Amino acid sequence: MNEKLLIVEDEFIVANDLTIILENAGYQVCGTADTVESAKAAVDRFRPTWVILDIFLQDDSMGTDLTPYLQERGIGYIYLSANTNQSILEVAKATQPYGFLVKPFREKDLLIMLDIARSKHESSLQFAAQRETLLQQQMRSLSEEALSYEHKLQKIPAVFQSLIPFDYLAFRYESTDSSMIKSGAFYRVGFNEYSVIAPLDEQGLDDIFFPETGQVNSIEHTSAKIFQGRTCNEPTDQQPLLKTGPRQYELNASLQFLSITREGLLQLNFCNKNLDAFDQSHINLLCKTRHTVFKLFSLLPGPTETAGKIFRKASRLQSAKPVSKFEGIYGKSAALLHVLDNIELVAPTPVSVLILGESGTGKESVARNIHLLSQRRYAPFITVNCAALPADLIESELFGHEKGAFTGAVEKRIGKFEMAQEGTVFLDEIGEMPLESQVKLLRVLQEKQFERVGSGKTIKVDVRIVAATNRNLEKEVAEGRFRLDLFYRLNVYPIQVPPLRERKEDIPLLAQHFLVLSAANMERAEVPELTATALNQLTDYHWPGNIRELEHLMQRTLIKTKAALIGQVELPVLSNPRSQVYPAAGSRKTLEQIETEHILTVLRSCSGKLTGMGGAAEILGLPPSTLTSRMKKLGIKKELYHGI
Ligand SMILES: Nc1ncnc2c1ncn2[C@@H]1O[C@H](COP(=O)(O)OP(=O)(O)OP(=O)(O)O)[C@@H](O)[C@H]1O
């Protein structure tokens, strides 16, 4: 094995044990260190490929502080710590490790984790290389295209968006002799829609770029830095005021890039509403492509018309073609656009995707779009509902069986993996899969081959895996209900789908969309309109069942409405759910208690009816199988709601 490992651990005995375990497994342990400073020296000296990192080190230094140093050098790291304090875990998680193991650990778990971390690191390096090539290609082709200033401006945001996600992007280019100055900004208003902001005046520039990054005539250099904070409030020690331009955009993170060459100076400021939008991979990407980035902006033809006119024209060009490449996904909130960027970025790659989010948020729609935007789109997209799979049938469901393989196998059956050959397998509700079944799934993911039950013939499969869950899988792993190795295999590229209450801007658009859709299904020519009162009711509601709940509510509303206007909507069960679902401070309940109460209230309100029209599953916007399994997990028994 070529891997060279550095152990950063302040307890000598642990470091020694680790060295023995790792060397026995064929790794080369090139050194140990017990502080961040000594670890940096060891990294420079031994050039390890991996670092095993403890969190609390000698002289009060923190292992997490070493990670930027490792990221800059492309070295992978996993944490090994006895600390399970939630806030420390959050800090560690934010550094994006390839794995985390809690001490004391089993030797086997450490080796599995390293194995998975290595394959994950390899795919992330491939992914980074693909991103770099894509960005270089897109910038080069735009630089070479013979287009006017305003046409080029209009194309710039799309070149960067999926690779360095932004809600606001400002640029400023100044030639060394200051004879040519170009500046401007783009504000994102839809997936492929931007409003182009007029050239920035000197006052505006001061608000957008840090002055220390703006030295023309200084020596050639490139730098990029991430800032987090708020633009909309007064600065505090923890949250300094960002220099991200217009405050009304409520931007929370900024990635500032500066490149100075003999020809001039280029400043870019990518801003995002999401505090965690940027990481070292974005800095690496910009720094690696710096020459092409510089060329793109330096070669922008000089404006020939008056500034205002150019930007008005570019803005018109933008809004003339809002493109939707996603099927069945509506909405323009920043939170949703972020999800769409992730879909666009990961779809063409071969990596596994784990989609996380509450029930009804659109996880299956995300999975389907990943498939449709991949090269596998002409092959099948096969959904496996893991919650509905009994443990004794899972093998036959996934891999198929031969006739007579077991009692009841009267016909030969093709399994889901074989059906999906060259396509995508969507493992829905993966968190519900019983432990015994997880091991069988892991095997096919690792070996990419299986046998039908009752057959000795090995079948090779080429499928992409996309999984989804509404559970906190890390917690499931910690509590022993989900296999760590399977979690790491699936969690190569996580996509978090936000709940509807965190993207309220989308509610009017979605409500209207579902009314139009339901009217078409019911063959009704006229679609009634929602009044302001009804829209306020919808935006005030907290949507525990998310988009599916809204969809069902709109269907019911349409059935009940004969008039042209919908004055009010009948919200399900709880007229003011927030007051019941979120208890007052001081009497905090766990999420599980809140969920239990909410399910019980709904069950009682529909006299215990679980399925069908007006049943609890429909009202909660959940598939009946999910509701039943949630009830089982929460210990909700019939006597708690029946006849009450
Ligand atoms: N952005 C969207 N625009 C329009 N419709 C959507 C959107 N997202 C989801 N939907 C619709 O909402 C419903 C629920 O979506 P979906 O089944 O993808 O959710 P889910 O998160 O997979 O749910 P579960 O966890 O219960 O399986 C579907 O009918 C889907 O078409």
From TrEMBL:
GO terms for biological process: phosphorelay signal transduction system; regulation of DNA-templated transcription. Keywords: ATP-binding, DNA-binding, Lyase, Nucleotide-binding, Phosphoprotein, Transcription, Transcription regulation. Residues 4-118 form the Response regulatory domain. One of its GO terms (molecular function) is ATP binding. Residues 329-559 form the Sigma-54 factor interaction domain. Gene3D superfamilies: 1.10.8.60, 3.40.50.2300, Homeodomain-like, P-loop containing nucleotide triphosphate hydrolases. It holds the Pfam family HTH_8. The modification 4-aspartylphosphate is found at residue 54. It comes from the Bacteria. InterPro entries: AAA+_ATPase, AAA_lid_NorR, CheY-like_superfamily, Homeodomain-like_sf, HTH_Fis, P-loop_NTPase, Sig_transdc_resp-reg_receiver, Sigma_54_int. PANTHER family: C4-DICARBOXYLATE TRANSPORT TRANSCRIPTIONAL REGULATORY PROTEIN DCTD, TRANSCRIPTIONAL REGULATORY PROTEIN. This is Formate hydrogenlyase transcriptional activator. It comes from Pedobacter westerhofensis. The lineage of its organism: Bacteria, Pseudomonadati, Bacteroidota, Sphingobacteriia, Sphingobacteriales.
